Amino acid sequence: QNRKYLAVIELLHEHDLNQFSVFNLQTNRRVRTVMIGGEVCKSSTICCIAFSGCSKYLLVQNGAPDWVLTCWRWYNGKMTAQATVDAEVDCVSFNPSDNSMFMTTGPKLMKYWRMDKQSEAMSFRDLAPKERAFS
C-alpha cells in the first residue's frame, strides 16, 4: 500500500448526510469529497472505511439499521458496487495482495467477499459457503 492518501469520514448533521474526503498526504490537500445521501442507505453513520492496496478503491461500511457496504472509485466519485451485510460490522479490509478480495468482520461475523472486475459495474460475492454465527 502506498499510504499516499488519507480518507476522513464526516457527518453533516444539518443535512443528515455523510461524506468522505480524501487527502493527499504529500501535498496536504483535499483531493476529493464524496457525499453519501439517503439514496444509498438509511444509516446516518459510517462505521469504517478502507483503501485497496492500489488506493484506487475505497470501501465504506455504513451502520445500523441497514449495514450497507459500498465500494467507490473515489478519484471520480463513482460508486461501483453496493451490498447489504446482515450483521453488525466493525472492520472492513482489503486483501493486501489481491485488490478484488476483502473481508468484513464484526462481533458475530466474518465474511469474505470478491469484487467482479469483469463487468463495468462491479458486484460483491460472498466467498464463504455459509455464513457462520459466532457465540
List keywords for this structure.
135 residues; mainly beta; four-stranded antiparallel sheet; 11 strands; globular
Write the layout of secondary structure elements.
Blueprint: E1 5-12, E2 17-24, E3 29-36, E4 46-51, E5 58-62, E6 68-73, E7 78-84, E8 91-95, E9 98-106, E10 109-115, E11 124-126
Antiparallel strand pairs: 1-2, 2-3, 4-5, 5-6, 6-7, 8-9, 9-10, 10-11
Structural features, described:
The structure is a single chain. The chain contains no helices and eleven strands. The chain has about 140 residues and is mostly beta strands. Strand 1 and strand 2 form a beta hairpin. The protein is globular.
Short description:
By secondary structure, this protein is mainly β. It has no helices and 11 strands.
Largest sheet data = 4 strands, antiparallel
**Mean pLDDT value:** 82
Over the alpha carbons, how many angstroms does the gyration radius reach?
15 Å
Tell me what portion of residues adopts beta-strand conformation.
over 45%
> Alpha-carbon distance between the termini?
34 Å
Structural class category: mainly beta
Helix content: under 10%
Please tell me what the overall shape is.
globular
Number of strands: 11
Residue ranges: pLDDT <50 for 5 or more in a row? Answer: none
Spatial strand order of the main sheet: 4-5-6-7
The sequence of SSEs as H and E is EEEEEEEEEEE
Count helical runs: 0
